[in-house]
Each structure stands twice: as C-alpha cells, then as structure tokens.
Amino acid sequence: MLDKKLKEINEKSHPYPTWKRFIQYFRPYIQDILIALGLLAISAAGQAIAPFLVGWSIDHLITRGNWRGLIQIIVLLFFIYIANTFIFRARIRQITWIMQRVLAQIRYDILTKIQSLPLGFFDRSQAGDLMSRLLNDVSTVEQAFGITILQIIGSIFSLIGITIAMLALNLKLGLLINFVVPLIIFATAFFASWARKRFRTTRQTIGQLSAKLQEDINSVREAQAFNRIQVNMQQFDTINAANRDANIQAIAITAAFSPSIDFLNTLGTAGVLAYGGYLTVKGAATVGTVTSFLIYVQQFFQPIQALSQFYTQAQSALAGLERIFLLLDEPALLQDAPDAIEMPPIIGKVEFENVSFGYTPNQLALNQVSFHAKPGQMIALVGATGAGKSTIINLILRFYDVLDGIITVDGIDIRSVTQASLRRQIGVVFQDTVLLSGTVAENIAFGRKDATQAEIELAAEIANVHEFITSLPQGYATRLGEQGTNLSQGQQQLLSIARAVLINPRILILDEATSSIDTRTEALVQEALARLLKERTSFVIAHRLSTVTNADLVLVVEQGKIVESGTHAELIDKQGVYANFYRLQFGTVV
Prior knowledge:
With 590 residues, this protein is an alpha/beta fold. The chain contains 22 helices and ten strands.
C-alpha cells in the first residue's frame, strides 16, 4: 500500500515535499536553535579572521622584520583556535541535544500512529516493513541529520564568513572565487534530482528485505519441517539482490558528485594563483593578500566537500522521511466521534441489529446479522472457518465499524462511546496467547498496570495457575522468553485467563481457548473458565462442540449469516446444520 504510493511519487517529476514537514519538528526548539546558530556564527567569524591575520602578518610584519608583532599575532591565533575548540564542543552538544529529541519524537509519532491504525491496515501491510520504517528509516535520518547536520550548518556559516572576508579583502579576487558558486549549485541540483529516485528504491527494498527476514525467522520451524529452506533462501536472495543493485546505482551516482567538487576546487585555486599573481605584478595586490586568498580558497571548498559528503546521506534520509511521512499520513479510519462519551459500567446486554460488514468493499463478511445477548448469558458461535465468527467478535470490540446496522451494549451504540472505555470492560482470551518478554506478574497485569501484587496473585489462583507460578525459580518475578516460549501452550493459556480475570470484565470473549492444549491442562482451563464466566456475558468461539453444550444460546454462522440459533438441545432436535456438525465430530446425534 505504502510502497504503491512511493512508486507514484517516484514517477512524478517534482520532489515530494518532505523538507517542510521535517522542519516542523524543530519548532519547539527555536530558542535552542538560536543559541546553536550564535555559537556557529562566532566559530565562523574566528575561522574567517585567521587567514586575514596570516596575510596581514606577511605584508606588515614579516617583510618589515617585526618579529615582536609576529609573535603577538601567533599568540592571538593560538587563542582564536583554542576558543574555537571550546565553541565547537558546545555547539556539538547543543545541536545533538536538539536532534536526538526530534528523532525521539519521530519514533514516538510512528509507534503512536501504528498503534492507532485500524486492523484493516495491518491486513494489507507487512510487520517487517513497518519495523523498517521505525528502525531503518529513522536510523538513516539520524545518520544524515545527527552530528552531520552540525557540520553542514557550520559549513554554511563558514561559507558566508569566508565569502564576506574575501570580498572585503580584494573585490576582484573575491568575485573570481564566487564565480564557481553557480557551477556548484548546478552540479548539486543535477545530481540530487537523479539520485533521489535511486534512494527511494533503496528504502523500499530494505523494507521488503526486513519483512522477508521477519517472515522467515518466524516460520523457521515450518520451513525445516516442509523442506522449504532452499525456496526461502532463493526468495530472500532475489530481494537481497534488488536491494544491493539499488544501493550500487545510488552510490554510483553520488560518487560522481565529489570529483566534480574537487575539479572546481582545483579550478578556483588555479584562478587565484593566475589572477592573483597578475594583480601582484601590476601592484594591485600584495603577496600577503594572495596568500590569504589561497588559504581562503581551501577553507571555501572544505565546507563544500562536507556538503558533498552530506549530499549522499541526505538523499537516502529524505527517501526514508518520505516513507515515514506516508505512514504518518495514513488515515486512522476508526476514530472516536467528536462527542463520544465514556462507556458507563456495563451490565452485559449486547444486541446486533441488521449488521453488515466487509473487509473489502465488494465482499461482505457479515450480511444482515441480528441477535440479542442478555446479561450473564453464554453465547456460542459455531461454524466453519471463514464463516464470520471472528468478525462478530472484532465488531463487538470495535476493531472495525459496521457498514450497516447497529451494535449496542446496554442499549448504547458502541460508536457513540470512546473505544478505550468500551474495551476496558471487555476481557478477551485468544486462541493464540500473546505474552511479553517481561515477568509473569507483568504479563498478568497487561491490562491493569495499577494492579497490586495481591490482586495479581488472586487472579492467578482463580485461573488455576498460582501453584505453577510459585514453582518457578523466581515465582511471579520470573522473566518469560519472547512470546512465552519457555512455557507450554496450556500454561500460556492459563496466564491469559488470569489476565482476563484481573480486569474483571462484564463481557468476556473466548476465541477457541482450549483447542491446542492437552486433556489434563484442559481440565484446569475449563475449571478456570467456569469461574471466569460466572455472572458475565460471554461469547465463545468453539470448534469443539462439547465445550458449548451448556451455552444459553448457540449461533450457527454460515457465509456471513446466522442460519440457526437456539440451545444445544433445540438445535439437535432441528436436525439442521448444527446437528450435522455434531454428527461429523462424534459420529452420532444425541
């Protein structure tokens, strides 16, 4: 999606407006920037006066044998360079302070945006590419605009100071040197427009590379089991080669820029020697003036050399900024209404009235779905994979908004309340448990950071997992591996139940919570769930029909519609879709 937009930008003749957007991040630091600019101006003045003093010493001290005056000038130059050293250190600290806060804000904005985007965005985006924007692209911006930006701003000030000094010292020689400035501007513009497209491609391919790398790492077990390692490596090699070629093309273009500046430097030096020598012979300039100009020429092109080095990094950084800003501009389709209210304490009445929804515009996942769940009822959702069961759950949590119809909780349209206040009162136990790499206690308190240790332990006891936790080396302070890899599936599920118990929800959602665990652990899970479900409205997605025989209402979902509803016994008597499911699982219908 984002890469498609980047391709459109790449095909346009004009550059994408990123500078203005990037500069906006510096607005809170205007005062600090002014201090940094002041330090740079002082440093540039010191740099500009030194060559003048050298030339003046030749004409007025050395040629006249004034060694005492020469020593005084040398001491003065020494103090100027010492002062510049301290000023240089101060300006580095000042600009680094500013840049790190700007980069931290960009990272914060990216993560905040990712967290606020609707689930539909992630259905069409790769996690690795999003991580590449947060890490690789921001890192590229940091490399270009971190310490380097200090050198660039300093170079600009130096150029201004040196130009003024040269024009003041000798107008004719000064104009001769500044004649190359238009040539430099032309060369920069020429190479910049050519290289930007190549660097856009490098940022796109590194995003694809990150996405592929994450996918291959996450699926390494499946790759080994299905003997797919070679296929994965061939696919990775193709993307890796594309990234390599894009970088080579970009660097090849920028590599031609530096020699162009070197040529102009040589041209300027030759011009000073030739024309300066001519003016000296004619008596229109002194040896000291020409000497000062030769030093100025070297100083004049040093900032330009720095600019040429910065140029390569800047093209890559601007391409990275384009990707970052495209992500930040992605519309957050699911937003709270301007007049949204806090959801009052939920009793547990849930109603769907003619609800229709589709993940894509041309295909409905739910079509005119209606049902009523009374407070405290257990609602079982039964159906084949892709029938629409998870979609119903996603809509209750308001991960998506309905296309038509209305969903109410306790008679309140869920679109009229804030998402946070709604979800705060809904507990979820997913089939695939997500655990953090923190402690056991931190994982249980995932939805309630203010929970006390006593509350965490009580939730664990209700979830039948307290005894297991206390057997761990550090008990509740035991740190879990990434995604809880050092725990069994059943232990992860019990922790997930404890997490739901802790927030004490009035509505509970169970997404096939016992499908991947052994029989012994399932007994513990079922006992914990029985405690958790008590006096709560619950929605249970189940493929094992034995787990929903006691449900107050069974909804049979097929192709986005509720085709049957009733209790287990009622649906068995109907001898319809549900009875057929039951027969397929157990070989008989009771």
